Give the backbone structure.
Amino acid sequence: MSNLDLKPVATRCGGDASTGPVRDLLTGRAVRLGESTEVRRLLPTMGRRMVGAWCFVDHYGPDDIADEPGMQVPPHPHMGLQTVSWLHQGEVLHRDSLGSLQTLRPRELGLMTSGRAISHSEESPRSHARLLHGAQLWVALPDAHRHTAPAFEHHAQLPEITAAGLHGTVILGSLDGATSPGTTHTPLVGADLTLAEGAAARLPLEPEFEYAALAMSGSVDVDGVRVEPGSILYLGCGRRELPLLARTDASLLLLGGEPFAEEIVMWWNFVARSGEEIVRAREEWETGFRFGAVHGYAGERLAAPMLPPGALKPRGRQR
Ligand code: MN
C-alpha cells in the first residue's frame, strides 16, 4: 500500500519529469517585514520555488503584540495569484479594492483571488489578542485563469478530518475525502494538522501530487524526518500515504498539488509570465488605476520597490 521507498525511481508527475518520493529538509530564511516583524520564508527557498501551485509561504509568530500595533501591511497590489491568510492565534482585518472588509480569525480561510489585479491591506485590529501567529501563502494561477476577475472569499467553516491523536482542517482542495469550499484553479491541497504528543498517523495522499510539510508549532517526524518551525520538508510525488509521528503536541501545514508545469516570473507581489508584464504592473501600481483603491486604511499605500538591474526571467518550479 505505502510507497516509502528509500531509493525511489524517477516518475513522471504533472507536466514535467520529476523525482518520486524524496525527503529534502529545506531551511527557511528570516525576512524582516517593516520595522518590527520578522517572518520565516519557507517558499521560495534555496532549492525549491514551488510545491504544486503553492509559490510563497511566510510563517510568522507567535509574536506578543499586546503593546504594539501588530500587523500593519498598507495597501499593495497583487496579480496572477491567490493569497491564503491562515491564523492560529490573533486576528487580521482584511480590506481590498473590491470593498471587502473582513476580520479573519484562527482557522478561518481568507482567500483572495487577485486575478488580473487587486489591492489590499492587512492589519491587526486596534483591539487585538496578545498573540499573533499565522501563515501567509500564495497560490500561482495557471495561465488560463490568471486574468480572471478579482474576488475575495471568507470561509469560517471548513471541513475537518480526524484520526487517533490527529485533527485536521482542509484549507484548500481535498484531503482524505474532505473538500474545502475555497475556489481553486489547479489540483492542489492545503491542510492544517494538529497532533497530540505521541500521535502516529498515516495520511492518504495523491500519488500525482508533490507535497511538502512545515511545522507551525512543535515537532513532528514526517516520514521519519524531524520537522520543526523554520524549515520545510519537500516530499516529492509518487506517495499514497504519509507517516506522521508527533514528538510533542504539534501543528503541521501540509501543502501539495499537481506539479505546476508553467514557468512563472515572481517579483514583489506579482506573478507573471514575463519580465515585461512585471515592469508594466509595477508602473501601473505607481501611476495608474488598474489595481483599484483600498478604502479605510489609516496610512499611505505601499510604494513599489525598485526593479532589480537586468531582465526578470521566467523560472521553473524547482530552482
Ligand atoms: Mn498581500
